[in-house]
Design brief:
alpha/beta, Rossmann fold, 7-stranded mixed β-sheet, 11 helices, binds adenosine-5'-triphosphate, binds magnesium ion
């Protein structure tokens, strides 16, 4: 008995002396063993989420918290009903559209009630598949060209309430496809078919493409991402006017600095 209580006392003393373990969040790569939808197998790579998916990999981080705040502001605005179809755009490339669209979609899906369809409608420079680590085999592009129906393109992710529609192969005529009647019908059908589902769309930058303003007509709300301190105020104002002030849900000033120079090559290649 004496020995046991000595051992217990010793253990307690050691425990007291040892430093408390701090909770440090280290982003982990999530490996998905089983795709939830069989056909999605052909899209699967190793499925290691990008480090940029902070809403999954660092749910306690300040950035992930900010996405929850934004989600709340969108869903519970007392002055208007929650928008079902939301597009995320920016004035110029590289301001953080994909980062915002994917993390916001995850944040919605990890909330209590919201199912989300995240659509990569940036047919010129798609990247949602990279964030979630899928092969960009088929997607919106094939649907808009009349080759595939939406149900056979949807990818159910490991995040329970999150479904993806990738962009598919970049077409030669993105303006025509994204400005087409079929695109409007797709948004309408996606909204009507699933009452409890939100659609979040990553779309091309508005100043350099004609299609973005057309898509703006079909959605209920627009989130404008601005690279903080880089995009001139007058230009932001112009973008807001072009897109339609009444649909702007809010402007996200992204503090992540990136030089426009890095995008020079990109401008030339994608926005001739
Ligand atoms: N707040 C942020 N924190 C960390 N990284 C960020 C943040 N915002 C953007 N990035 C990174 O900056 C780069 C550009 O962002 P992103 O791809 O989201 O921009 P984009 O507007 O979608 O660009 P594009 O016009 O090329 O589609 C990416 O590597 C992205 O992960
Ligand atoms: Mg992008």
């Amino acid at each position: 008995m004496g020995k046991i209580s000595n051992a217990i006392d010793k253990y307690k003393a050691e425990k007291k002396a040892s430093k408390p373990v701090e909770h440090v969040f280290m982003p982990q790569r999530i490996k998905v063993e089983e795709p939830e939808v069989v056909f999605a197998k052909e899209y699967l790579k190793e499925q290691r989420y990008s480090d940029k998916l902070v809403a999954v990999l660092a749910p306690d981080s300040v950035t992930a918290e900010m996405f929850k705040v934004i989600r709340g502001a969108i869903l519970y605005d007392k002055d208007r009903p929650a928008p079902k179809a939301i597009m995320v755009t920016s004035t110029f490339p590289g301001e953080g559209k994909t980062f915002v669209a994917s993390n916001l979609a995850v944040s919605f899906a990890m909330g209590l009630n919201e199912n989300v369809l995240l659509v990569d409608a940036d047919l010129r420079r798609p990247s949602i598949h990279e964030i979630f680590d899928y092969v960009n085999k088929y997607g919106l592009s094939e649907h808009l060209q009349g080759e595939k129906n939406i149900p056979e393109l949807l990818i159910k992710t490991k995040i329970k309430k999150l479904t993806l529609l990738l962009s598919g192969k970049p077409p030669s005529n993105p303006v025509e496809l994204l400005s087409s009647k079929r695109m409007g019908e797709f948004i309408k059908e996606a909204k009507d078919r699933y009452q409890d589902r939100f659609i979040i769309m990553d779309v091309p930058p508005s100043q350099l493409t004609a299609e973005t303003n057309v898509i703006a007509n079909h959605v209920d709300g627009i989130i404008l991402v601005v690279m903080n301190g880089k995009t001139p105020r007058a230009v932001i104002q112009q973008t807001v006017e072009n897109l339609g002030k009444e649909k702007i849900l809010g402007i996200i000033f992204n503090g992540f600095a990136q030089s426009y120079k890095a995008y020079n090559k990109y401008y030339r290649k994608y926005y001739k």
